Amino acid sequence: MPTAANVIDLRRMLSERFPEAHAGLEERPLQCLSTGVPGLDQVLGGGLPRGELTELVGDGDGSGTAQVIHAVLEQAERDGRFLALVDAADSFDVDAPTLRALRRLLWVRCRGADEALKATDLLLRDRNFPWVILDLKPLPVSALRKISASVWHRYARIAEHQGTTLLVVTPQPMVGGVAVRVESRARLTIESLRATPSENIAGLRFQLLRAVEAGLRMGGVA
């Protein structure tokens, strides 16, 4: 299947290639939440799909995932929304966001994957948080590989039912059942410290690895 420039192009391509899968389905506008990261929003066709599970992959240090989290928090503050961050390794830099943005944040500091997964399960059921971010990136890959695939499928069902946008940050692709998987292609260096946060965010680049149209999820089209 050819690579889509963004989610909107992919939705159109799937509709043309599998018209029978859309028979009897009402056309629904794609509802997205802007991340505040221009490059990421462009790849996603406007932002993270609401009520869906999205995986952001960032390999190694300087991949830009921390900057994405900070940008999402700032965007949530501008939109007047609350955000819950489940910090699996207690690694969030609380000095990076503005004080106004921090007032919109519930920061759940965890000690490992088990605590983080339990906290995420609870937060997804709370309609007070339209945004939930689960940051697993700092944890060892060996520990993350032990997470049952059923966890991700359960999260996807809850997010869809509650209308919650869940972003899972990982060091490698490992989340099953995601609506969208996108990889950060940034390589921030010591030189990036000389740039402003907004300049670093504007320079982040991403590649869409997977996108599943919501109406085709159960049909197995990926």
Quick description:
With 222 residues, the chain is of the alpha/beta class. The protein contains eight helices and nine strands. It has a single domain, classed as P-loop containing nucleotide triphosphate hydrolases (Rossmann fold), CATH 3.40.50.
CATH fold-level assignment: Rossmann fold
Largest sheet: number of strands, sense, barrel closure: 7 strands, mixed
Query: Any idea what the shape is?
Result: globular
| Average residue-wise pLDDT | 84
Beta-strand percent range: 15-25%
User: Which structural category do the helix and sheet elements fall into?
Assistant: alpha/beta
Sequence-ordered SSE layout with sheet pairings:
Elements (H helix, E strand, L loop, with lengths): L6 H11 L14 E2 L4 H7 L3 E2 L3 E5 L7 H14 L4 E5 L11 H4 L2 E5 L3 H12 L6 E5 L5 H4 L4 H14 L2 E6 L9 E5 L12 H6 L3 E6 L11
Parallel strand pairs: 3-7, 3-8, 4-5, 4-6, 6-7
Antiparallel strand pairs: 1-2, 8-9
Helix pairs in contact: 5-7
Describe the fold and architecture.
- This protein is of the alpha/beta class.
- The protein has one domain (7-17, 31-211): Rossmann fold.
- Helices cover 32% and strands 18% of the residues.
- The protein has helices at residues 7-17, 38-44, 65-78, 99-102, 113-124, 141-144, 149-162, 197-202, and strands at residues 32-33, 48-49, 53-57, 83-87, 105-109, 131-135, 165-170, 180-184, 206-211.
- Helix 5 runs parallel beside helix 7.
- The longest helix is centred in the first third of the chain and has 14 residues, at 65-78.
- The protein is globular.
- 41% of the residues are buried.
- The model is unreliable at 1-5, 20-29 and 214-222 (pLDDT under 50).
